[in-house]
Write a structure and sequence with these properties.
Helix content is 46%, strand content 14%. With 252 residues, the protein is of the alpha/beta class.
Length: 252
């Protein structure tokens, strides 16, 4: 398919590479960041522009890959009444594009993406279309880069899925950051925890997280918990989270 990407950040960069690898043609990159847009255009042997007024109007699909809070701003300046237009935002309704075209939708990549990735991970794609044309093209595009992990999903389930994604990705990474800070202040090396982190993640491919729970909280080892909380008096943010998680684990 012929595509136009609106946006030149992490999501646009990674999806663009996946699209090209799947045999699609990117006609144009539209981005406010002139340097980032032209860099992607050079990489993909295409053209870029910083103005929506100069957008190529012959693509099969237009993908708005900008931060969630910028989708409405882009949509209000876009008119493509006979084209398929979708955004990549997790928690934004596809209806924000209703005035752009009757053929609108969502193309949500459930993955943490960075433009400097040297190896692109699996990217499950969750799509939604306002009509048969939008659904058909977005489904074809999703399956071309995600295969059996592509799935049609409605707005309510997409928002609920995003909650789970934030929990397992953003919140987990915050725990890693707190643990790294704790290690630094205590004269420990965070890198020693990496094999444990990797093993924990690897197990999830075979078992339910509930079946894998270990530690003093699930064992009701109160002596160890008290000792940990004493150590954490010097780390109030981590102590608060430790207490909340311990109580949650104990409740099962």
């Amino acid at each position: 398919m012929d595509l136009v990407l609106i946006g030149s950040g992490n999501v646009a960069a990674v999806l663009g590479r996946k699209f090209i690898a799947a045999g699609h043609h990117i006609l144009q990159i539209v981005g406010r960041n002139a340097s980032a847009a032209s860099e992607l255009a050079y990489e993909w042997d295409t053209v870029s522009t910083n103005y929506l007024s100069a957008i190529n109007r012959s693509a099969d699909v237009y993908l708005i890959a900008v931060p969630d809070d910028q989708v409405k701003e882009v949509a209000k300046d876009l008119q493509l009444p006979d084209r398929v237009v979708a955004h990549t935002a997790a928690s934004v309704s596809m209806n924000v594009l209703a005035a752009v075209t009757p053929h609108h939708g969502v193309f949500y990549p459930l993955q943490s993406l960075r433009r400097d990735m040297t190896v692109i991970p699996e990217i499950p794609i969750f799509f939604q279309g306002s009509d048969a044309l939008a659904r058909r093209r977005l489904e074809k595009l999703a399956f071309s880069i995600s295969g059996r992990q592509a799935k049609e999903i409605d707005e309510d389930h997409r928002s609920r899925l995003h909650v789970a994604a934030v929990t397992v990705n953003n919140f987990t990474n915050h725990l890693f950051a707190l643990a790294e800070d704790y290690c630094r202040k205590e004269g420990l090396e965070f890198r020693h925890l990496l094999p444990l982190i990797e093993e924990t993640i690897t197990r999830l491919r075979q078992y339910s997280p509930a079946a894998l729970q270990t530690g003093p909280a699930v064992r009701h080892d109160d002596d160890t918990v008290r000792k940990h909380l004493e150590i954490l008096n010097a780390h109030p943010r981590l102590k608060k989270i430790y207490q909340v998680f311990t109580e949650s684990i104990r409740q099962g």
